[in-house]
Design a protein that fits this description.
CATH class of one domain: Alpha Beta
Radius of gyration: 21 Å
Bound molecules: nicotinamide-adenine-dinucleotide, sulfoquinovose-uridine-C1,5'-diphosphate
Distance between the termini: 39 Å
Oligomer: single chain
Helix content: 25-40%
Largest sheet: 7 strands, parallel
Strand order of the largest sheet: 3-2-1-4-5-8-12
Length: about 425
């Protein structure tokens, strides 16, 4: 349990493995942790790059191969980041060998398939997402026990495990006290806050939670689960140092998240694609705050034997239609209310407790601080790389989705089922 938050300045440098360190959150986190004096090793199987190939799309920003990225970091900063190309979900022996050799004091775990629409494309994509995400998490936990490492696991979970309905009471940070049989001899119990995931991807994150709870109880692993909202923005202080360090910016219908999509759409004059009425309310955080939250969590680990430490990693809550109106107001973009390909509540209220990371010293980057800069300096710069045909969201939650009363939409594109190699 945290008594006194540890200030970052008091921290000894750590040996840290970043699983999924080539991805949108993992790359800027690896650079930030390296810049802060830690000894960082990235482990990644590059599956995210292969999924781009499968989908026929590229990041809006031109990302360099991973070996070139770390070479550029060495040139710019004088700091080394080691790389291990391995599949955490399938190469258990290689993962164990890395952990035994490097003996990290912390592992940051980003190595999962993270797009809800991708996870709903076909039965093969569903199975790939479950196999990859659940095995990656379980392999890590089993390997830490086998290697007898007392290492802090910091995992990136999601607010979406809860289903976005706060029913008038803010979603707490992980746990709920309940009273069983209240009319007789009431039994007080602390439980994980009830889950209600809305995609196969989000469901894998609820399964992760159970694995964490078991290994914290049985093997006294020290685990922090960061339930993150939708990340927006691209740049951090480190990725902005050199174009070869640039972070990825997904804008396509599967991987692009809502606010970054609106920023890119505004920059190319494409009407903002609001699903349904846009009454969906979601939690958000800027990428710069993501990297800082991970350091804050890492600096304040649980003790052995503690329950899993859970933080809601989010700074603002907005309705999708309000975001579209803000972006339209800044840029003059039009708004298009398109048919919603997802099965989700058309409108919801959401309030989220987020005091724990703020209490450790997080100073949020707000939409007001950075939105216009993202449109003008990042989205606008790479417009010639946009493939407009990749913008619509084509992945449907329900196969025979009737949207106009004319029957099943059999034209909805479904990939040939080729999940990335390793699936
Ligand atoms: P990403 O897809 O850009 O990065 C994930 C990285 O993990 C990729 O580089 C991929 O190659 C790697 N990877 C996947 N499976 C692997 C495996 N089996 N072995 C080794 N490497 C593997 O995703 P991201 O946006 O950086 O998200 C990172 C984490 O943060 C995810 O777990 C996601 O659920 C969580 N998260 C992301 C957001 C967001 O808005 N991006 C919001 C909340 C939570
Ligand atoms: N939406 C639109 N228009 C678009 C794209 C999305 O209206 O062009 C809507 C969606 O229907 C949904 C909302 O915006 O209601 C959010 O969609 P999203 O794609 O931005 O986010 P989501 O699918 O929830 O997933 C993203 C990340 C995932 C992470 C999650 C955090 O991809 O890894 O776990 O955000 S959270 O939403 O808090 O669960």
């Amino acid at each position: 349990m945290i008594d006194q938050p540890v200030s970052l300045e008091d921290m000894e440098p750590l040996r840290i493995v970043v699983l999924g360190g080539d991805g949108f959150c993992g790359w800027p986190t690896s650079l930030y942790l390296s810049a802060r004096g830690n000894d960082v090793t990235i482990a990644d199987n590059l599956s995210r790059r292969r999924i781009d190939e499968e989908l026929g799309v590229s990041s809006l920003t031109p990302i360099r191969p991973l070996d070139e990225r770390v070479r550029a970091w060495r040139e710019v900063s004088g700091l080394e980041i080691d790389v291990a190309v391995l599949d955490v979900a399938r190469d258990y022996d290689a993962l164990l060998e890395l952990l035994e050799r490097f003996r990290p004091e912390a592992v940051v775990h980003f190595a999962e398939q993270r797009a809800a629409p991708y996870s709903m494309k076909s039965s093969r994509h569903k199975r790939y997402t479950v196999d990859n995400n659940v095995n990656a998490t379980h392999n890590l936990l089993a390997a830490l026990v086998e290697a007898e490492l007392d290492c802090h696991v910091v995992h990136l979970g999601t607010m979406g495990v809860y289903g976005y309905q706060s029913a008038g009471v803010p979603i707490p940070e992980g746990y709920l006290n309940v009273s069983l049989a209240p009319e007789a001899d009431a039994v007080e119990k602390e439980i994980l806050y009830p889950v209600d995931p809305g995609s196969v991807y989000h469901t894998t994150k609820t399964l992760d939670q159970l694995l964490f709870a078991f290994y914290a109880k049985n093997d006294e692993l020290r685990i922090t689960d960061l339930h993150q909202g939708i990340v927006w923005g691209t740049e951090t202080d480190q990725t902005a140092l050199d174009e070869r360090l640039i972070n990825r910016f997904d804008y396509d219908g599967d991987y692009g998240t809502v606010l970054n999509r609106f920023l890119m759409q505004a920059a190319i004059g494409y009407p903002l694609t609001v699903h349904g009425t846009g009454g969906q309310t979601r939690a958000f955080i800027h990428i710069r705050d993501t990297v800082r939250c991970i350091e804050l969590a890492m600096s304040n680990p649980p003790e052995r034997g503690d329950r899993v430490q859970i933080y809601n990693q989010t700074t603002e809550v907005h309705r999708v239609i309000d975001l579209a109106e803000i972006v339209a107001g800044l840029t003059g973009a039009e708004i298009d209310l398109v048919d919603n390909p997802r099965k989700e509540a058309p409108e919801n209220e959401l309030a989220v407790e987020n005091q724990r990371l703020l209490g450790l010293g997080l100073e949020p980057t707000t939409l007001q601080d950075d939105l216009l800069r993202e449109v003008t300096q990042v989205a606008s710069k790479y417009l010639d790389r946009v493939d407009r045909s990749m913008i619509p969201c084509k992945s449907r939650w329900v196969r025979h989705h009737r949207d106009d009363g004319r029957g099943p939409d059999l034209t909805a594109p479904v990939s040939d089922g080729a999940a990335p190699s390793g699936a």
